[in-house]
Amino acid sequence: MHLKRIIVAIIILPLLYLFIMRLPAIYFFCLILSVSTIGLWEFYSMYGLKGAWRFFGLCLGLLLLITFYTVREQFLVILIMTILSVFVLRLLGKREPTSSLDDIGKLVIPLFYIPVLLNFQLLLREAGPEWIIFLYGTVWASDSLAFYIGKTFGKRRLFKEVSPNKTVAGAVGSLSGGIIATYIFSLFLIPMAPGRVITTGIIIGLSAVIGDLIESMFKRDAGVKDSSNIIPGHGGILDKIDGSLFTGPLLWLVMRI
Question: 20 to 30 A from 226, CA-CA: which of 1, 119, 189, 240?
Answer without folding.
Answer: 119
